[in-house]
Protein: Flavin oxidoreductase
Amino acid sequence: MKHLTTTDIAQMEQRSRARLINSLSGFKSANLIGSQDDKGCTNLSIVSSVFHLGANPALMGMIIRPDGVPRDTLSNIKQTGSYTINHVSSDIYCKAHQTSARYDANVSEFGEVGLTEEYVEGVIAPFVQESQLKFSLEVREITQLMVNNTIMVIGEIKHIIVDELGMNPDGYIDIEALDTVTISGLDSYHQTKRLARLSYAKPGKELDKLP
Amino acid sequence: MKHLTTTDIAQMEQRSRARLINSLSGFKSANLIGSQDDKGCTNLSIVSSVFHLGANPALMGMIIRPDGVPRDTLSNIKQTGSYTINHVSSDIYCKAHQTSARYDANVSEFGEVGLTEEYVEGVIAPFVQESQLKFSLEVREITQLMVNNTIMVIGEIKHIIVDELGMNPDGYIDIEALDTVTISGLDSYHQTKRLARLSYAKPGKELDKLP
Structure:
């Protein structure tokens, strides 16, 4: 086993350190954030930082770097209060990754990478038509984290659109059946293979594998 | 495609809604949090809410529910300022899941589920010996999120211990080669199969698949 200390980390070349530290959290979600500004210019950006915050109310968080590429996304969310989160499948992962290029603010990534805008009545932000699981949010809170000036955006889920193929009677959505991919590090995309769903754990009780 | 609205979500039975909403963020990281209180009683709890916050300084966030199972973890982190994050592999995912049972505060999950404490000089919190990628943190910030009273814990990475098999010359750690698993929903565990690592995206430039 290799043992790296704070000094080793500090002395690494900047890009290598970014690749290393971005690998540590484990597998990450792969989502496209859809938004538009108040003039109607749409934006689409891949993020790997979406995380679950709570089910009731249904809240989702994401982290945006103040100097990072999805800065148009943040600006649009501030303008309209609306955004969508769209799962990335293996069919579209290269197009999704391409949205991380630094396009000008007045250029829509939808057109540039070849993905299709889709609209739902009452939602300003565009969905990704090609996505098999997607939902819209209304922003609830935008906070700058003092430790390193990153921005945390928290939204409440309003509309969920999901391929019925993934819906399980107990509420679980089988995102593997929907071919949602996962990200490791800054640039690696992965499909998944289920080991099992496990039963609710109790002290002194054997776990069951759910059917 | 199925379309669910706020009303549909509100009317769902509570556990079904939790399963549904927990499926939406996409694949999640699978980590064991190691800690101990100031009397030396150790604790281990699985979390799927660890997320990357920044590489320099190397910062990691995680979300803890105030009434959730890892409340001993939060109490220990407040007491000692120290915790470890340990990747879960397919060898130990059932033991890792079992740590989510509600054991008493004076019972160590290490012994109950059959995982081994490992210590590094200068770090109070125990690592998981069986884990192939693990790191220690010193707490930097504990914040209660006003939207739903969940707790965000932010720590700075101090020691990284990683199987050299996973280390790539460019800094990336191949967590798939280390057999790190990923979680979907509340209870589903998955191995991964790489599609590709993709090159840094630039406008008007074709993506390359990295070797």
Observations:
- Chain A has one domain: 25-190.
- DSSP finds five helices and 13 strands in chain A.
